Amino acid sequence: MDVIIFCGGRGSRMSDETYDKPKPMINIGDKPILWHIMKMYSNFGFNRFILTLGYKGSVIKEWFNTNLTNESWSIEFVETGIDSEKGARLKKVEKHIISEDFHVTYGDGVSDININKLVDFHKNHDGVHTMTVVRPPSRFGFVSLDGNIVDEFEEKPQMQSGFINGGFFLFNKVIFNYLNDRDDCDLEYGTLDVIAHEKKLYAYKHDGFWQCMDNIREKEYLDEMIKTKNTPWLKKNV
Length: 238
Description:
- This protein is α/β, with parallel strands linked by helices.
- The chain has one domain (3-229): Spore Coat Polysaccharide Biosynthesis Protein SpsA, Chain A.
- It has helices at 33-42, 57-67, 86-92, 115-124, 188-197, 216-227, and strands spanning 3-7, 27-28, 31-32, 48-53, 74-79, 101-106, 109-111, 129-134, 142-146, 149-154, 164-165, 169-172, 201-206, 210-212.
- A five-stranded mixed sheet has the order 5-4-1-6-12, with helices on both faces. It has a three-stranded mixed sheet with strand order 11-8-13. A two-stranded antiparallel ribbon has the order 2-3.
- Strand 4 (48-53), helix 2 (57-67) and strand 5 form a beta-alpha-beta unit.
- The radius of gyration is 18 Å and the shape is globular.
């Protein structure tokens, strides 16, 4: 299956880091988070990538053309516009997609999700498309009190109720019937919400590690994980 990764956004909430490069090229450890995401898929045998370029896309092409020497990856770099929403970016790479079903994910999040189990789930449900849902980690430590006494403290626990869109989608090509290549064509609003209303979007529940990188604090958190060699997203779960 092809793996499409959204790489075109400006990453405005990390403006200092993205002045001269796109958000997926921000390093965690000594490599861009985009490399880490691609390595996740590669660990499960998915090695054909389509990168939807936009803001400073040349930086992505230059880095991979210069630094990628040890991976047997096939990469297509597709310019999809500076201001395109994700739905438009996906539509603009339609002709590059070979497989009938294909992976799609964002360029700013990592997880220890078992990609093979995700594929099995997708192939065996009665819907058409699959969205991975996760329980988000808290941005703050959890404190339980007994009066004025702290009786439990947990640093950045995972929320136990409620799910959010964790990315790591599997789509069938029929999704292109819902998309167009106008810059304002969004993926989540006007596409996935319509598909969900039609009962064609199934949720794969992932209860393991998941972390996006929306701000500097989350980048530093991932940096620290790499420094301590705690990288669950790079471990293959069989």
